Amino acid sequence: MNLLVVNDSGIIGGGAEVRIKLLIEELLRKRYFEKIHLLEHDSANSPNSDGLTIHKCNTKNSGKITKHIITRNHIDIVQVHNLVAISVRPIMAAKKLNKPIIFSAHDYWGFCGRRNKLFKDKKPCKGPNLLKCSCCIGLISYINSLRNKHHLNKCDIGIAPSEFVIKQYEKNSILNNKWMKILPWIDVSELEQKGNVREKQTILFVGSLARYKGIDLLINTVNIVTKTLPEIKLKIVGSNQNKNDSDKKRIDDLIKIFDLTKKVIFLGPKTHKETMHEYKKANIFVASPLWPEPSALSVQEALCAGCKVFVNNNGGIKEFVKSEQVFNTAEELAERIVKAIHHKERINIKDVLNNIQIFNPERAVKDFINIYSKWKK
């Protein structure tokens, strides 16, 4: 059997690309497919590797190239991910050739022009509808979103990382009753637990400083926590930390207002290995996105690294933690952080090892193989 994977950013980028790369690597390791092909946008820059053939396309020719790849390479199954930069033409081409199509949802591009269900990137949206979407993303983008929905419904099955994501797509009449939840997976190669020394009063945040990531709420939380725990520190790993970046300026202003200059430490972007090292040092990890994040790679990484994880009551990320680890406000989060540090809550190694098994790529590949087997010749 041969597989065609379609993702506009290939296998280099954010959380979706990391997961796609891990999935392809594990499938190749198991030799389930004779050959795997990857179709990406011209601007993507995925590296070549044994067993994986890279193809390029753009918005206009993605359908034609998909047809060419399928017919010339005897593709048996097509798996589509994010198609924003290359359009839904690959779905149209695969369907004309009567190939089974699997859609993996990593965000909400299938029905939301901004992909994040935030109205003008500022507040939660209860849409979509003609007036609201035209005001938010423009009429043409709204029409394109309707086109996306129409063609996504031609896929044979939808894959989502959480029940929340499934409900959002079905609420928008996409692949109703055709969804399967496959829990997210991460790179577990840097998760050795021996010899870790925890910094007892350190909170870790991994992500960009963009407002929708919720870093403003977390800084407000640190300001509250310092009243009880004056030694508390917040470490931030991620992009756009250059002093001239508009998001960095916004956060710097907030830090000055709260007089937290010595409490907030900017670590900048890190490699995967370096980031895992920070997880294993931190006592507490917080994910506080304003948008309904489907799963968040960082949440699974923090859980597997043994952090005490707190997430806000939003999107699919709350499905990966216990109810007492979910917060609604900065005040509530501050209270839970203080309680966790005062009680000196220890890491439950059994929970950590269980999480490593749950979010292991090997487990995810078994789930996918169960789907692929429906079309095995």
What does this structure look like?
With 377 residues, the chain is of the alpha/beta class. The protein has 13 helices and 15 strands. It has helices at 15-30, 62-73, 89-96, 130-136, 139-152, 163-171, 215-225, 246-258, 272-281, 297-304, 330-342, 349-358, 361-372, and strands at residues 2-6, 35-41, 52-57, 77-80, 101-104, 118-119, 123-124, 157-160, 179-181, 199-206, 233-237, 264-268, 282-287, 308-312, 326-327. The protein has a seven-stranded parallel sheet with strand order 3-2-1-4-5-8-9. A six-stranded parallel sheet has the order 12-11-10-13-14-15, sandwiched between helices. Helix 2 packs parallel to helix 3 (89-96). The model has no long low-confidence stretch (mean pLDDT 93).
